[in-house]
Amino acid sequence: MSIKAPEIPTGAFTGNPAKDAPPCRLGVNIDHVATLRNARGGVHPDPVRAALLCEAAGADGITAHLREDRRHITDDDMRRLKESISTPLNFEMAATEDMLNICLAVAPHGACLVPEKRTERTTEGGLDVAGQHNLLQHKIARLTDAGIRVSLFIDPEEAQLEAAVRLGAPVVELHTGAYYEAAMTTTPASIKMEFDKIENAARLGAEMGLEIHAGHGLTFSNVQNIAGISQVREVNIGHFMMGEALFMGLHETVREMKKLIADARTGCLV
Questions:
Q1: What residue numbers bound the domain in which 48 lies?
Q2: Which residues are catalytic?
Q3: What is the C-alpha separation between 220 and 60, in angstroms, rounded?
Q4: Is the dihedral of CA 189, 190, 191, 192 positive or negative?
Q5: Between residues 131 and 184, which one has the greater pLDDT?
Q6: Hey, which end of the chain has fewer CB within 10 Å, N or C?
């Protein structure tokens, strides 16, 4: 018997059902399978095995973040993921020369440039694309020339969207962490304010010609509001799903998330 996750408040509203929009894809981040493995050392549990199970359950892609301190995913994990999975591999990385060279060698389907600080437990905000144009331009060009689709993990702000367009990145992933945090700590009005930022950024970014993805802090309880935004083409979810897999099993966790996303696209919001 599966065990439902505890409810996380999302405010007294839902996103507009995206009935006429194309399907919203689910990318599953398997970083924290490697976190568990590295806590003891050795080779178990294997994040590649987890990625294959996610694919079998219906995941549309696999995401993995190779951090500079290798706290979870390793270089070998990235190589094995590319060799083993059949769905697109999304290589999350800091915008450094070292990571750029590794990504070019692995040659994933896509590379998502994210901010990274050694002291953070998880990514704390979006990449300042507007303030780092000169740093990012060369790296985005090299990835693009190698046939790797670049996405930029940004806060849902107009200036960041405009900078992404100037840099020629085809995709942005909107950071939904502030929306999650508001749901955990503040009022329905504040939650709606954070949701509106995401919804407005998704609409504006799509009008600029960007493909819109979203991720960070998404759960069974709040994913439908984000997946219900018609311009959002993909959500990437990791920590929550790996945690729920301890109780529900990985296969059922992926299936449940896929169902919630699909229902949001047809207006069947729970």
A1: 25-266
A2: 65, 92, 216
A3: 17
A4: positive
A5: 131
A6: N
